[in-house]
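Onboarding guide, step 5: your first structure request.
Type a short instruction followed by the sequence, for example:

Predict the 3D structure of this protein.
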Amino acid sequence: MTEEDYENMSKKQDGLCAICSKPNTSKRNAYLQIDHNHVTGMIRGLLCDKCNRGLGYFNDSSKMLDIASKYLAFYDQQEIEKFNN
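The system replies with structure tokens like these:
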């Protein structure tokens, strides 16, 4: 990816993370991270440090992220029901 490619992608994303729509606030790196498929090398988008690390912790597995999402949703619902009773 060239600097020009990066700038164009950043403009398309309004300078925000492709997942959480927030700017990168990491003290480690002021720029959005270039996210890519580790198997194909295809660039997917620009991510903040937190979202980029999150995908890495889940080994870029959409299946595992889906399971995690369902896990959170289940316990969110449990908490709502407990709170309302």
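Each response can be followed by summary notes, for example: The chain has a mean pLDDT of 90.
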